[in-house]
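Quick note —
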Amino acid sequence: MECSQMGDLKEMKAKIYGYARVSTQEQSMHSQVDALESFGCQQIVLEKESGRKRRKELENLFLRMRAGDTLVVTKLDRLSRTTKDLLEISEFLQKKNIHFISLKEKIDTSSPMGKFYFILIAAIAEMEVSMIRERTLLGLEAAKKRGRCGGRPKISAEKSDAIKQLISRGMSKKEIAARLKVSISTVYNYTKHTCT
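Predicted structure written out below.
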């Protein structure tokens, strides 16, 4: 085998990536980085954003990772704050054949038991999302039976008449909203449905 081919094989070798995230400026990543280095991560990606925002560093890492690579985190909540997000990430990792390790929870998807545990967590997460959706629909249905349709409460007849009078005087929608202490969208909606 030629030297250039051997170099290509080395580049294709699976890598172990660590991912550390802090959600506030006051938090430190030192303990996460130390644990990831001790585990043997070859590259560690640091994210200093909240889990609710887009995680650019994690997205970029996913673009670099190849089948056979391993993603390591110190705890599951460093990877994901929501079960829905965790489910999406687990599906993505499985499709790309990327192994996943969470040090605290002792999850390692390179073993059959680790895969089972991670799938179990993802299934529980999916069930939780379904239950929330079902409860929301039941709540909306119950509210509808009680006469509530959702959205903002209707404005009073007095305010409705006042909007009509102020429009007829040529006042702007912005001025009407300020004077009557209603949102400008309320004024727009009123004019859309009553003034033609």
